[in-house]
């Protein structure tokens, strides 16, 4: 477990720009009063953002999530994370850059469904 905590800390310091933008909107209970954590271990994975109280995981996908192999790997990852009782939503860097309000509305919608 220490290996995952150490890796999560490293990922927090090397966060991509799109994740920084989304984090500003999620942190400090800004969205629906919901507490989110970033780069948090769940099982053998480190998820981008998670609300433990609402069991919602938000994964931010960049260009490295577009091939058939990468899509299949993401699907397996989602299935495994969901086996822990979480609901996983995926957003792209492009969505965050071009339609942040839409991304936030979608996350609010998902939070309302949980």
Structure, described:
The chain has 114 residues and is α+β, with helices and mostly antiparallel strands. The protein has a single domain (2-113), classed as Endonuclease, Chain A, CATH 3.40.960.10. Helix content is 50%, strand content 22%. The chain has five helices and four strands; from the N terminus they run H-H-E-E-E-H-E-H-H. Strands 1-2-3-4 form a four-stranded mixed sheet, with helices on both faces. The radius of gyration is 13 Å and the shape is globular.
Series of secondary-structure elements, N-terminal to C-terminal: HHEEEHEHH
| DSSP, total strands | 4
Helix content class: 40-55%
Please state the CA-atom Rg, rounded to the nearest Å.
13 Å
Based on the structure, what is the oligomeric state of the protein chains?
single chain
CATH superfamily: VSR Endonuclease
CATH fold node name: Endonuclease, Chain A
Tally of discrete structural domains:
1
* Beta-strand percentage range: 15-25%
Q: What's the overall average pLDDT, rounded? A: 87
């Amino acid at each position: 477990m220490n290996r995952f905590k150490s890796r999560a800390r490293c990922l927090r310091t090397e966060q991509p720009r799109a994740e920084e933008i989304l984090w500003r909107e999620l942190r400090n209970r800004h969205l629906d009063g919901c507490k989110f954590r970033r780069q948090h271990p769940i099982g053998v994975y480190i998820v981008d953002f998670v609300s433990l109280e609402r069991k919602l995981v938000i994964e931010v996908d960049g260009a490295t999530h577009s091939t058939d192999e990468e899509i299949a790997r993401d699907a397996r990852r989602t299935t495994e994370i969901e086996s822990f009782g979480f609901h996983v939503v995926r957003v792209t860097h492009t969505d965050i850059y071009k339609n942040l309000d839409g991304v936030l509305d979608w996350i609010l919608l998902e939070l309302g469904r949980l």
